[in-house]
Amino acid sequence: MPPKKKTKKTTKKAPEKCENDVEAKYKHSILDIAVLQDHIAIQRESAIKIQSDRADLRRRMRDMEQKLQHEGQDHRDVNSDLRRQYKSMQTDLSSKVKRLEKEVGQLKEELVLCQDELKREKREREQVEQEKDTVISDLCHKMDNMETDYEKILHETLDCLTSQLSVAGQEWKGKSTELHQNHKDLLSEFGLNAANI
């Protein structure tokens, strides 16, 4: 018996659905990668800003130290009151320098954290890419297997159909020979020659 048309339609829909799933997963992976790249760009900008702020703080600290040295040289001969003021100012500046050094330390810690997070994001992105490549490879392998299976089923169906057609042809040939013979017999009963008709 020949295969039903409904079976052929179902067979064609399965690869299309699989292709749509692969395409959707591929688009989803591309979106994930774009989000990760944006996140990395933001982290990179933050790290650059932190480094710039750190360099500015160091420059300001050097400038202040130079200012202190110049003021010390310019005011050596000043009376004790000015020296007291200078010491007071030096104390203030020292505390400011300490505060700035503390801020620099905090910024360094933040920079280390940002660098660690950037490394983690890179590792996660690489892992996502590896998983994506694995999934794509698996899907390609499955598609190849499905194609081989469908080809095998098609060949088997065609072979079965060919053998059924051959059997049906032999049956019809036998029946037509029998029918021709019956007609010849009937014509000969009426005295007619089948070859002349």
TrEMBL record:
Coiled-coil intervals, chain numbering: 47-138
Location within or outside the cell: Cytoplasm, Cytoskeleton, Flagellum axoneme
InterPro entries hit by this protein: DRC12-like
Chief place of localization: cytoplasm
Domain of life per record: Eukaryota
Keywords in alphabetical order: Cell projection, Cilium, Coiled coil, Cytoplasm, Cytoskeleton, Flagellum
Function: Component of the nexin-dynein regulatory complex (N-DRC), a key regulator of ciliary/flagellar motility which maintains the alignment and integrity of the distal axoneme and regulates microtubule sliding in motile axonemes.
Family: Belongs to the DRC12 family.
UniProt subunit comment: Component of the nexin-dynein regulatory complex (N-DRC).
Protein name (Swiss-Prot/TrEMBL): Dynein regulatory complex protein 12
Species this protein is from: Labrus bergylta (ballan wrasse)
Source species taxonomy: Eukaryota, Metazoa, Chordata, Craniata, Vertebrata
